[in-house]
Amino acid sequence: MFGYPEFRSPQLEIINALSRGDDALVIMPTGGGKSLCYQIPALLRQGCAIVVSPLIALMQDQVEALQQLGVRAAFLNSSLDLSTARSIEQDWLDNRLDLLYVAPERLLQPRMLALLEQVTPALFAIDEAHCVSQWGHDFREDYLQLSELHQRFPDVPRIALTATADARTRQEIAERLKLSEAQHFLVSFDRPNICYRIALKDNPRAQLLRFLRDEHMQDAGIVYCLSRKRVNETASWLADQGFKALPYHAGLPAETRADNQRRFLREDGVIIVATIAFGMGIDKPDVRFVAHLDLPKTVEAYYQETGRAGRDGQAADAWLVYGLQDVITLRQMLEQSQGSDSYKREEQHRLNAMLGLCEITTCRRQALLAYFDELRDKPCGNCDSCLSPVATWNGTEAAQMAMSAVYRTEQRFGVNHLIDVLRGTENDKVFQNDHHHLPTFGVGKALDARQWRSVYRQLVARGYLSVDVARFGALYLQESARAVLRGEVEILLRQDPKTSSAKRTTKNA
Ligand code: ADP
Ligand code: ZN
User: Fold this and answer.
1) Cα separations (Å) of 398 from 200, 459, 490?
2) Ligand 1 atom 9: residue of nearest CA
3) Segment 329-341 mean pLDDT
């Protein structure tokens, strides 16, 4: 029916469990093949399977794909007019459907519940099950009520699926959906063929160009940017450089978007320059690289976006450049967003985790997998840290100087001014604030401005310093800075390369 020569592990076990009536909780990375796990049991078991899915666009894609295979599938959501919805309901009642996709808010309406009483479902599949988690940003009130399904239909097996893996979310899903009896299936998040590379942004366009010219001249790939403006600019610039580059973001006409997406899927060597709007449901196996010109907001986002590379199992690159300005921009966006204080705090933690991944000097894959609670005892050998070990230096004294400059200037100034103070630069701003009389003035001449910038960036990334976006990027001290200033902690810093290309040459630490 589906045309695959074999199952991917552990699809068969899941299909067996569900088919014999057991519950299952499936944690599998995006692209791993979750849908098959309920689609086959839906065909094997008596009656129609109900699939709860929060994303209308994906629902439609899946149903169309199933119909093309000859599976009797349909969906019910707010995009349908009343008569279409009624005729689908009739098909369902008349036993002419194998799979029915339903939006969560619709499933729990009295009308639907009454219909469910008439035709016992083959199973319930709850996709994107992490939406029950109040911690995640995908939280959906409706998902909480899905536990009712179990109370009303205790004999119908359920499968909950998600790509969000951390232990806390997993536990929440099991609790909230009353899946205490469910078998858990955890699939590794490792994508061994993806080489992770993260470099310091100094001249992003030149860096990207070098990366593409040296390593991906004819390849299909995705370049992610944060804003639509940057997407447009980057796409036309890459086109000027001779690449088949096309923009993709929510601000483009639907036709253009569909067209560009089609070309990306069908033609060889197309580069899509996109905001994160691109990628949901895109399934192109031979994407050879994913490049980020801006820092993703979370490790989850980074993993998802980079995960679109190398689905065919062949070598692929996940390439990212970032700088302190990225952190400031993302913090600004977060401050200006609508969320509650606790939401903002949570997002700040997530951003810090992403920064941590950028700044570590050890294996990226180990850190990435550890974030998803998957521990590896060996470095991977296929990331920039492993391939070209980073030199570190004892930055304890520099960190103390950097932080005392922040303290002495009353935590009111940004990086550039702090560096002027440390390096003893005599300029108007220094004189106006009387900073040339501070004890820290000129104590940092041994390092140049670029090196100081690197020190500050790493101190921010490690949470010793924070950026006050309301005050134009002023740095202020965090509680943890105290121990450093007292000399109680040793600080090892990355030695930033002079030119920040991440070449695959091995150099000694
Ligand atoms: P997920 O929901 O986990 O992101 P999907 O169910 O959409 O993943 O599947 C991702 C891709 O993998 C799809 O293109 C699907 O056709 C393909 N796929 C799933 N199972 C298999 C299999 N056993 N063999 C080959 N391809 C598969
Ligand atoms: Zn590694």
Assistant:
1) 20, 10, 11
2) 33
3) 83
Q: Is 470 helix (H, G, I), strand (E, B) or coil?
A: helix
Q: Give kind and range of the element (H or E) at residue 93.
A: helix 82-93
In this structure, the number of other CB atoms found within 10 A of the CB of residue 474 comes to 20
For ligand 1, which residues put their CB under 6 angstroms from it? Answer: 4, 7-8, 11, 28, 30-36, 283
Residue holding tokens 């993993």? 303
ipTM of the complex: 0.98
User: From atom 17 of ligand 1, which residue's Cα is the shortest distance away?
Assistant: 33
DSSP states of 448-459: -HHHHHHHHHHH
Q: What percent of the chain stands above pLDDT 90?
A: 67
| Partners of 289 in the β-ladder | 221, 317
Whether residue 10 is preceded by a cis peptide bond, meaning omega within 30 degrees of 0, is yes
pTM of the entire structure? 0.77
pLDDT of residue 281: 60
pLDDT of 75 reads 96
List phi, psi (to 5°) of 321.
-120, 140
Measure 29 CA to ligand 1 centroid, in angstroms. 11
Distance 374 CA to ligand 1 centre (A): 22
> Which atom number of ligand 1 is nearest to the Cα of residue 283?
14
Whether the CA torsion 35, 39, 41, 46 is positive or negative: it is positive
Statement: residue 136 has pLDDT above 70: no
